[in-house]
Design a protein that fits this description.
Layout: H1 2-20, E1 21-23, E2 29-35, E3 41-46, E4 62-65, H2 72-85, E5 89-98, E6 104-111
Antiparallel strand pairs: 1-5, 2-3, 3-4, 5-6
Keywords: Signal
Signal peptide: 1-21
Amino acid sequence: MKLLRIIWLSALLLTSMEVSATWTAPVEIKTVYLHTQHGGYGVFIFSDMSVNPAKCSNTAYYVISKTNNVLFNEIYSLMLANYTTGKKVRVWLDNSTCSPHNHPLIIHARTE
């Protein structure tokens, strides 16, 4: 019974993690820049901008918030390194929240 409870709680945790965000396919970074409003953003244009799990109204860019993501510097550095070397990345986008300018929010990033 205890094992069944652990399996059930693990499945529930994994499901809730999956609902909170969505990974993109591997994408090439086309544009990178910093934006100063609302505490600062890293702004990115990718080769495929079709993922929009939060249904944000402005999908011209994906952004990472400097004030709301404790790993902003690390993620921005990873993205900039991949931009300069031409490596593809995958980003994890928030499923429920958009930026103040209604762009999809990047939560995590990884090199492909």
